[in-house]
Amino acid sequence: MTLNLTREGATAVLTMNRPAQRNALSPDLRAAFLDAFQSIRDDDAVKAVVLTGSGGHFCAGGDIKAMAQAREQGADAFSGRQRLLKMQRWFDMLVDLEKPVITAIEGSAFGAGLSLALAGDYAMAAPSATFCAVFARIGYVPDLLGMYLLPRAVGLARAKEMVFTARVCNAEEALAMGLIQEICEGDVVEAALARAARFHAAPTQAIGLAKTIMNRAYESDREAVYAKEAMAQALCGQSGYHQEAARRFIEKQPPVYNWK
């Protein structure tokens, strides 16, 4: 299996499993992502997601050897375009997933692997983690939404510097620039699972609506956000979760969801 999907309580754990290739995105792995994200999206029992890699690495990006072999076998520009379009379908499902996604990063997060690291809502890294928009080294531009996600994470000027130089950033620099949110001295996957478990009692639908609106914050004007928040608040106000939470508040009972 190139991608392992397991459960830890209400957390879905996705582990890229090509350790000899530093979890580079082979055709089989890309296809497995599509099936996995469809399953997670449609499973109401899943409240949070942890995405990680096996063998001490997160993801080295595209499988360059596989792409070279495809060209030798006659793949042309149109097949290359189709390959990216297929990847974009499942990647959109990850970015738009209306559940909290935590990325647990060890070792390399290079190229498309950097995009995967940025696609979550909270990035946690081991001290060994390294990050690189490596594309320029092989004459490519960033793909898998790298030119969209990276400027939003670190700012336009810093994103350009990372892309133009294709240099490697360590975990400390990544934290300082906002590429990740936390460095874990212990087991980063265990730390990510512990964080994900805190969402098990959360209002998943409310968080999902907030995520969908905020994911589009930079493309939305004020009036559009007003309209979206009014719609979302009306929906949440009718939910069983809100009614139970309001009852507990009025009766001075402990809340179901309390992040401490």
From TrEMBL:
Q: What protein name is recorded for this chain? A: Enoyl-CoA hydratase/isomerase family protein
Query: One of this protein's GO BP terms?
Result: fatty acid beta-oxidation
Could you list this entry's UniProt keywords, alphabetically sorted. Answer: Isomerase, Lyase
Cross-referenced PANTHER family: 1,2-EPOXYPHENYLACETYL-COA ISOMERASE, ENOYL-COA HYDRATASE-RELATED
Example of a GO MF term: isomerase activity
Species in which this protein is naturally found: Allopusillimonas soli
Family statement drawn from the similarity comment of this UniProt entry: Belongs to the enoyl-CoA hydratase/isomerase family.
